[in-house]
Design goal:
2 helices; mainly beta; four-stranded antiparallel sheet; 42% strand; five-stranded parallel sheet
Length: 191
């Protein structure tokens, strides 16, 4: 299935992440395209009891795992306001329709992310959220915000004074001249 801007305009969807199809509490998502129902669904506006993700209106949660996923859902999305800016939604019926680089940039942009591509140099500031899914990106003079490297992406982080850089999956990073902020490596990421 090709995901286009028109598809995004005509379907109910959210973005989320998993560890290669495994999410919170060890829940295993089926293969791409297979619909599932949340086994412990409830309509309360709090965490638990649904498949969680971000959409344009509720998008402060972030990527908790290394594989980005575009998820189509049926029915309603229940907003969850956590009170700390980590807003998200939960849904009852869903299916993964695209992962990683197959997700169009437009989906991330609508959910409040900025996308960096091969050869870009970025300087994340407070409140900014960046995603790098492939290629090499240089992060310089980061003073806040978040930068998330995944898949086969590589990054050079220099002169970081604030914010967070996350390297996960098989991403590779080099960090120099760090005076503040954090760089995290998880999964098979190396640095």
């Amino acid at each position: 299935m090709e995901i286009t801007k028109k598809w995004l305009d005509t379907h109910k969807w959210m973005i989320r992440s998993s560890a290669n199809g495994i999410s919170y509490n060890g829940f295993k998502w089926p293969a791409i395209g297979i619909w599932i129902e949340c086994p412990d669904w409830n309509e309360t506006s709090k965490c638990g009891g649904g498949f969680h993700g971000e959409m344009a209106e509720y998008n402060g949660f972030g990527m908790q795992y290394y594989r980005a996923e575009l998820v189509e859902y049926e029915g309603k999305a229940i907003p969850i306001n956590t009170g700390d800016g980590n807003d998200k939604v939960k849904v009852r019926h869903a299916r993964v329709v695209a992962i990683g680089g197959d997700i169009p940039d437009e989906a991330f942009i609508r959910c409040g992310y900025q996308i960096a591509h091969d050869g870009d140099t970025i300087s994340p500031k407070s409140g900014e959220r960046w995603i790098v899914l492939s290629g090499h990106v240089t992060v310089t003079n980061q003073s806040g915000g978040d930068c998330w490297f995944s898949g086969s992406a590589t990054g050079t982080v220099t002169n970081q004074s604030g914010g967070d850089c996350w390297f996960s999956d098989s991403a590779t990073g080099t960090v120099t001249n760090q005076s503040g902020g954090d760089c995290w490596f998880s999964g098979s990421a190396t640095g």
